[in-house]
Design brief:
Layout lengths: L1 E5 L8 E6 L8 E7 L2 E8 L8 E6 L10 E7 L5 E11 L2 E9 L6 E7 L4 E4 L2 E2 L12 E6 L5 E12 L1
Antiparallel strand pairs: 1-13, 2-5, 3-4, 4-13, 5-12, 6-9, 6-13, 7-8, 7-12, 8-10, 10-11
Organism: Arenimonas malthae CC-JY-1
Protein name: NADH:ubiquinone oxidoreductase intermediate-associated protein 30 domain-containing protein
Family: Belongs to the CIA30 family.
Amino acid sequence: MKTLLRFDAGADEPRWVAVNDGVMGGRSQGGPEVAGGTLRFSGVLSLENNGGFSSVRTVGRSFDFSGASAVVLRVRGDGRTYQLRLATDASYRGITVSWGGEFPTVAGQWTEVRVPLAGLRPSVRGVALQGPPMDPARVRELGLLLGDKREGPFQLDVDWIALE
């Protein structure tokens, strides 16, 4: 495995930003915090105004996933199912395409989860697309998303992210 991101002080890490359902009128709140050697993605999911998702993503750094078969994450979750999201420069009707795959968490326990790249599915704003294939050499955004349509607080801690 090749470590892609770790959250140690002083590590050369990208900046993380939140993108929540407020972009479409929803009221979910969530965001990233890097502290104590982990990335914490936490908040409160709301279904008001047809909302129901919260996400965080990297900005300011590109990644080369060439030769990798999967993304492996060491996570401590809350028992909910999250998504890994990757984006390249590909777009559909002027909107960025992202490729996503789900991974489970165990409440309060650190686990390693594996998300096969071959299983990632493209979508635009939550709508599934047929193709295009993802160019693994041109990943410009890595993200985490919760969109399980269950209201309430959530928390996902990430120790590291690696390529396999």
